[in-house]
Amino acid sequence: MKNYTIALLFLLVISVSSNAQNTTMNTTQLAENTVRNFLEIVRSGKSPERASEFMADSVKAHQLNAEHPETITRTPENYTQHVNEFLQGYGHYQFEVTELIASNDKVYARWKQTGNQTGDVDGFKPTGLPVTEIGSAVYRVAGGKIVEYWVQIDRKGTEIQQQNNSSVKSGSSKAGLPFPDAYISGDVLYISGQIGIDHTGELVNTGFEAEATQVMENLGNVLRKNRLHYKDLVNVTIYLTSMDNYAALNKVYSNYFGKKFPARVCIAVKELPRQAHVEIAAVADFNN
């Protein structure tokens, strides 16, 4: 009788443990499916009007801005409007969920959003050039709907892209000069020499690496304006006012390429326009 009782207790423990495990798995799976569908259907801009299918009537939204953290209340209606504002600013943007990890009622998600700016966004006028936003959030799900989330956006990275795009669009770096940023001949793009001028039209003067980085960003802006990337470069010409900066230049330059680099020449010169320390001209191939 004693052994029979022990066996029953053992089976009961296994049953309770199994049920608890199944409940946890069901909760986790439900939360993951809810968030995945919310991101791919609503946040992606495909069907923002369906927000109420995945969101509770009142959702706590914790916006984790380092300088000004705040908690606001989101409803399906104002979240739909929130997504519509993205559509007004960037048209039908591309949205990719790059990470999704679920545990019980919480789901971590990271995404990448890319769209051409076609409307006013955060004080920046439309340029028609691409802007990429990287964001992440932790969502809490209850009853099959999102009830709370904590979100972080790389706002500084987005702002830098908008500033650079504005500089390219306005042509401020070439204002008053008798040449364009680039010239197309056949399948080849010839890019005029770029110096380290930021969106304000001033030369970056916080150090050589910062100036060289701005030069490479300006070069990238011209490429993106023509739907090209750094990998499409086939020849690069660099002008330095001091070869003492050669190693620092290579350090910055290497960050913009994978294992494949374009042909390159580096020339020492006495001086450059605007008292710049580095200038880069390049050639890109549309068929590269």
From TrEMBL:
PANTHER family associated with the record: 2-IMINOBUTANOATE/2-IMINOPROPANOATE DEAMINASE RIDA, 2-IMINOBUTANOATE_2-IMINOPROPANOATE DEAMINASE
Domain of life from the UniProt record: Bacteria
Keywords, sorted A to Z: Signal
GO cellular component, one term: cytosol
Family designation: Belongs to the RutC family.
GO biological process annotation, one example: polyketide metabolic process
InterPro entries, alphabetized: Cyclase_SnoaL-like, NTF2-like_dom_sf, RidA, RidA_CS, RutC-like_sf, YjgF/YER057c/UK114
Top-level taxonomy: Bacteria, Pseudomonadati, Bacteroidota, Sphingobacteriia, Sphingobacteriales
Family annotation (Pfam families): Ribonuc_L-PSP, SnoaL
Keyword Transferase: no
Signal peptide feature range: 1-20
Protein name: Reactive intermediate/imine deaminase
PROSITE patterns for the chain: UPF0076
GO molecular function: deaminase activity
NCBIfam families xrefs: Rid family detoxifying hydrolase
